[in-house]
Structure formats: C-alpha cells, structure tokens
Amino acid sequence: MKRSILFFSDCSFFAGCENMLANFFNDHNFIDEYHVLFIYRWTQRYENGFNNRMTNRIENIPLRLYDHYDLYNSIDEIRWTSLHKPLKIFVNLLLVKYLFVFLNTITLFITIRKRHVDLVHINNGGYPGAYSAMSMVMAAKLCGIFRILYVVNNIAVGYRSPERWLDYFFDRAIIRWVTIFVTGSKYAHDKITTTLDIPPNKVRCIHNGISPRSVTETREQITQRLGLPNNRLIFSVIAVLDERKGHIYLLKALDRIQKTHQDCAMPFCIIEGSGPNEALLKTYVQENNLTDDVLFISHEPQIFNLINASDCIVLPSIKDEDFPNIILESMSLGKAIIASDFSGIPEQIEHMKSGILVKPQNVSSLANAITMLTKDPALRNYLGENAKTRFGEIFTDKHAIKEYSETYHKLIEGVL
Predict the structure, then answer these.
(1) How far is 384 from 381, CA to CA, in rounded Å?
(2) Which strand ranges, in their side-by-side order, compose the sheet holding 148-152?
(3) Which CATH superfamily is domain 219-394 in?
(4) CATH fold match for the domains 3-211+397-413 and 219-394
(5) CA torsion sign, 171 to 177 to 178 to 180?
(6) CA quadruple 51, 276, 328, 202: dihedral positive or negative?
(7) CB 211 within 8 A of CB 54
C-alpha cells in the first residue's frame, strides 16, 4: 500500500521556495510511490503559478487561511503614512496573529482529521515565515500524526524584535512536535540550530534541486522580441525588486563602470521583476544617464528563455537570502554568474571556478567582476561550463528528490 504524504505550503505566490514542491509533484516515480495530498493557502496568484508548473494531476485542497501580514499590507495602502506604524503596533498588541494561528489550526484540523496521513511535509519560506505553518503542526498533532518534516527555506529569525518575544513559547512547542527540520543550505542549518536552540541531530541539510525547464526561444528571437542591442553583452538580474536583492548596488556598479572604466565596453543590463523598489531604481537609472544601458521587464513568462539569452546572471543580494533558485537555474544553462558572498550562496558557487563571489554592498568589487567578465570571453565560458558540470553533479531535482525520499522512509519506519 502506498504511503500517504500531506504537503502544506503558505505563500502568496508560487515563489522560488515552492520549486521543490513542483519537483515532487511532477516526478512520475515519486507520484507512483506515494499518495500525495497538497494543502495550500489560496490566493489567485498562487493558484495560477501552481497550475502553470504542474504536469501531473495531484489531489490538492486550497484553503482560505488568515495571515496577519495581509493586515500589514492593508495598512500600508492607507494614504496617511504616519498611521502605518501605530496601526501595526495596535494589531500586534491585540495579538491578532495568535488569533489567526488558532483559527487556522481549527480549519486545518477539520480538513485533515478523517484522512489517513503517514507523514506531513511543511514547506515554509523561512522561520517563523508563514504562521499557518505553526497551525499545520498543531493540527497534525491533534489528528494523531506524529511524523512531521518542516522545511525552512531561509534564515531563521531570533527574538530581538518585540514581535517575536511571545513566539518563543510557540516555538518551543513546535520544535518539540516536529520530527525533523530541513534546510536548503549548511549555513541555514547552523543558523537555525543556534538561533532557535534546536538539537543539531534534529536538523538536516538537503540542497534544493532544480528541474530545468525548456528553452523555447533562441537568443536572436529574445533579442528581437525585447528590442535588445545585438552588439552588446547581456547581464541580467532576475529577482523581485526589493531592497534585500541589492539592485541599487548593481546600478551603482554600472555607473562606476561608465565613469571610470573607459577601456571597458558597457554591458547591457536587464532587470526582470517587480516590487516596492521599482520607482527608486528607475529614478536612479534616469538621474545617472543609464537609460541606454538598462531595461526593466516587469515579468518574463518564460524565464529560462531570458536566462539562456543572457551572457551573465547577476544576483547582488544584501540580506534575507539562503539558497537562491535563480543561481541553480543559471548553472543548469551553463551561464557565468556573479553573486553575493554570503549565506548559502558559497555552497552553490565556487569562487572563480563556477562563478564569481563578491562582498554584499561592495560596489567596487561588483564593478570589477562585471568588467572582468565583459573583457574576458574565455573566463565567461570557463565559469559557465564548470557551473553546468557542478549543477549536474549536485543540484538536479533527481538528487534532491532521492535525498528527501530516503528521509521519508526513515521517518515513516521510525528510524529517524
């Protein structure tokens, strides 16, 4: 008889932290081995992304769950910005998020209480991340499900902020009830054990894997469709336009190259994505005469086409990063990569062998790396070929699924 695994996720859209779910659900061998049930917090954006990525049909249950971050977003839309902080403090004083944890626990308990489940797999963006993940742990325990695997796809947050103080008591229960935590990087593994005081043997690192998607357009077709210059190198950054992704430092690096590296041909930079920093970044481009060197694309539906058309991929993140999927996707296509040297990124890229690592927020180092790759096609090819080889050896979806399956077997058999 097939073992039954209940997957749970709460994300407002089908983000990078959801990619391993797509790997599981689209793998025919995995679906043949396990009965899969997927429960997720419904948003239209998430559902659209989920449906676009699925090739197999699996049983799934979208639920209307409560998230206090939705209240924060509503507060941010109020015209009078002076009210934003007081209203958020008021929401916190009312302990709304714990009320939502309680209500979500009831909803999840009612949903799963009559189902046979051997193992619960919770997919969270970080810790605490989505608080409904706590609710899923509690609902599973109420239903008598004792094998719980909890994936943390970012760096765990400690208790310095007052918003996290009361979480401590919830965390102690969650840590006791979860069978094993899984992180995507060794860095995140070490951080969660020290930050949340979890025994190291209760946390395992399993690198996320990527299932390469098809390239459906040639570089020439992409160049024509997007109106790109034919005679310039293309450097692309593909990330949400948020402060933590460090786009502004890439733009400052391009400005430095333009003003001080007269012997280097200016590369053409594509910035793909949308987010809160969009207006700030576009203003910087206009004020620093970079309009002929930078193209903003709010959304590219076939992202592998854009990666394939690029000569280099840049990820200048400065914080809140762990094991970025865009790096793995770029490695799978044999692209030269420049990325920030922190968190789990050095576990993906070997400096000057399968990519170039630069210190976060270091404009000079970033400019030098871009200049180096612009001038040296042999180095670009060397880094790209090594990246593709490293990807095939370590970071494919098959590798990750195999490690997770071995962990599932041990959990279900009670030997882990």
Answers:
(1) 5
(2) 59-63, 34-41, 3-9, 119-124, 148-152, 180-183, 203-205
(3) Glycogen Phosphorylase B; (3.40.50.2000)
(4) yes
(5) positive
(6) negative
(7) no
pTM of the model: 0.91
* 3-211+397-413: CATH architecture: 3-Layer(aba) Sandwich (3.40)
155-175 pLDDT, tens digit per residue, is: 999 999 988 999 999 999 999
Q: Specify the residue for token string 């989920």.
A: 50
**pLDDT-based confidence at residue 263 (cuts at 50, 70, 90):** confident
Q: What is the pLDDT, as a whole number, of residue 33?
A: 95
Contact 303, 329 (CB under 8 A): yes
User: Helix, strand, or coil here: 13?
Assistant: coil
How far apart CA 204 and CA 411 sit, in angstroms, is 13
- Pairwise CA distance, residues 216 & 302, whole Å: 8
Contacts of 260 (CB under 8 A, 6+ apart): 367
Alpha-carbon span 163 to 68, nearest angstrom: 12
Q: Write b or e for each residue in 376-404: b if 16 or more Cβ atoms lie within 10 A of its Cβ, otherwise e.
A: eeeebeebbebbbebbeeebbbebbbebb
Q: What is the distance between the alpha carbons of residues 217 and 310, in angstroms, rounded to a whole number? A: 12
3-state secondary structure of 34: strand
Tell me the pLDDT tens digit for each residue of 83-114.
667 777 766 766 889 999 999 999 999 999 99
- The values of phi and psi at residue 247, to 5°, are -55, -35
CA distance linking residue 392 with residue 401, whole number of Å: 14
Place of tokens 């509503």: 74
SS3 83: helix
Locate the domains of the chain by residue range: 3-211+397-413, 219-394
